[in-house]
Design brief:
With 264 residues, the protein is α+β, with helices and mostly antiparallel strands. The chain has two domains: 91 residues, Glutaredoxin (3-Layer(aba) Sandwich); 147 residues, Glutathione S-transferase Yfyf (Class Pi), Chain A, domain 2 (Up-down Bundle), CATH 1.20.1050.10. Helices cover 51% and strands 8% of the residues. The chain is built from ten helices and six strands; from the N terminus they run βαβββααααααααββα. It has a four-stranded mixed sheet with strand order 2-1-3-4, with helices on one face. It has a two-stranded antiparallel ribbon with strand order 5-6. Helix 1 packs across helix 7 and helix 3 runs parallel beside helix 7. The longest helix has 27 residues. The chain is globular. The two termini are 18 Å apart.
């Protein structure tokens, strides 16, 4: 099967913030995977995750069928589009990729939710996601959402720890991931695979936003990590990558940013 035999899928995800593909590591992961594989798609900004089939984002609509969960979506597209960036990986690499995925999606994602949506350093920036809510009820909605996030993180367990303990656990996640990451331009060498979409999804939200944290400081202190993030953004999201202005400062690529979001 080829991509040309199918119309573009609809990708429902949170609106962009901070000039990165998405603040949600799962939304960013999926859109990055779509661009790696060149599967055509159209973005549908969806501020309310409750509109999704499972009450979460992202989800897609493909030929009238709605599918939720980024990993299930990837599995669906591998089967229906005949594209698989992981086809060349050996058994050991596939095992490493799964361990990295579990680390970043089943643990670090909750650390990221805490640092961006609960800590004051994050709330002062991410509060802008409520701008579309009428001003008269905006504080009430923001408090309700914060309460839901705290409840989720408490039941998950991470919010039962201190701020220092939570952030240190996130640092351990990244130290482990970076230990098994190769020195090539991508995670497993010269060509991108699915794990690159996963890593970039978590990394973009961690280092390419103005949200300060010890995790961001650590990652930005690693030249190879910063180069990797910039490489992924520049190659797969040139419409978002900064371009030099006449004054010599980096500015977003507004022309491309306003174009229809189709897999590059």
């Amino acid at each position: 099967m080829t991509n040309t035999a199918h119309p573009p899928i609809k990708l429902f995800q949170f609106p962009r913030m901070f000039g990165i593909p998405n603040l949600s590591p799962f939304c960013c992961k999926l859109e990055t995977w779509l661009r790696i594989t060149r599967v055509p798609y159209q973005v549908v900004d969806t501020p309310n995750p409750r509109k999704g089939p499972k009450g979460k984002l992202p989800f897609i609509e493909d030929a009238g069928m709605r599918i939720a969960d980024s990993s299930r979506i990837v599995d669906h597209l591998v089967k229906t589009r005949g594209v698989d960036p992981d086809a060349r990986l050996n058994t050991s690499q596939r095992a490493i990729a799964l361990l990295v995925q579990r680390t970043l999606e089943e643990h670090y994602a909750f650390v990221l939710a805490y640092s961006h949506l609960v800590r004051d350093e994050g709330l002062q920036h991410t509060g802008a996601r409520f701008d579309s809510v009428p001003a008269i009820v905006r504080p009430l909605v923001a408090r309700a959402v914060l309460g839901q996030i705290k409840k989720l993180l408490w039941h998950q367990g991470i919010l039962r720890h201190s701020d220092q303990e939570i952030l240190e656990s996130g640092l351990r996640d990244w130290r482990a991931v970076l230990t098994v990451m190769c020195d090539g331009p991508f995670f497993f060498g010269d060509e991108p695979t699915g794990v690159d979409a996963i890593v970039f999804g978590a990394l973009a939200a961690s280092v390419l936003t103005p949200i300060e944290s010890p995790i961001r400081d650590f990652l930005r202190s690693q030249p190879a990590v910063v180069a990797y993030a910039d490489r992924m953004l520049g190659r797969f999201f040139p419409d978002l990558a900064p371009v030099p202005s006449r004054e010599g400062t980096a500015q977003p690529n507004r022309t491309a940013q306003n174009a229809m979001q189709i897999g590059a």
